[in-house]
Amino acid sequence: MSLIYSLVLYILSFIAIWLGAGLIIKSVDRIARRLRLSSFALSFFILGLLTSIPETALGINAVLDRKPEIFVGTLLGGTVVIFLFIIPVLAILGKGVKLNHNLDTRNLLGLLAVLSAPGLMVLDNKVSSFEGLFLVLSYGVIFYFIQRKHGVLEEHHSEALLTKVYSFKDLAKVIFGMGLVFVSSQYIVSQTLAFAQLLNISVFYISLIVLSLGTNLPELSLAIRAVVSGKKDIAFGDYLGSAAANTLLFGIFTIASEGEILTFDNFAITFLFIVSGLGLFYFFSQTKKDISRKEGFVLLIVYLLFIVYEISRGVLS
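Request: output the structure for the sequence above.
Response:
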């Protein structure tokens, strides 16, 4: 009975993360729109970071508990989830999605390189603080080039911060949502460790498969809402921004772990899945400037193969 009770609370914690992140996203979305940002800039720079709040809270708790394998698995798996599950779901349910990301080929390739960087760092089975700093700087570089194209740091945006952009109601929702997400993530970390020990499965594999999907519930909910409302371009910009935020968070949490993080052997196949997902996405995006339903199914099949491989490896390890 206690196991069933713990499992129910585990699932409810993910639901609480979804609800808490939803409160934050809606409130800050209203504030950001008053800053007169473009739809892509809004979704990439604002929503991309906001929908990464579950990963942020989970990572903080993992660092505090000295369990870096949790944030390593969650953030690496998060990129796979976004490009091989959530974007395909958006394409399938929305009968295709136009890639209105306004990124030229150079910026898009640079962004995909930043997204694959954490996996590259893990290939030698360890990540140092220096490599963590490199990941943070790589996010800063891609942030600079993309914002320069969209004028995020233009003077009129900073001046808007001096006006009545905020409201007590919005701020209260943000604070409550952050508290809900943080407390829920703390419980998820502790229960993940307990389930891993009970099932005799590495925490890394549970984080890579389960937590990476759970912490991307805000992105998944945004996909469903975007299809219903017809605002697929906003959701798409959020996914690129959220995936980029994973690299930033990976670097920050690596540095915060104070020292070299030992990771896991035989990561090459997992890295191959990450690179394949990003490569297929780039190929599809350069053909007709969209992801069709058929291409969405192709990406989803790759994700299912990834899940089968990682589950079998986790059980047999």
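The chain has a mean pLDDT of 77.
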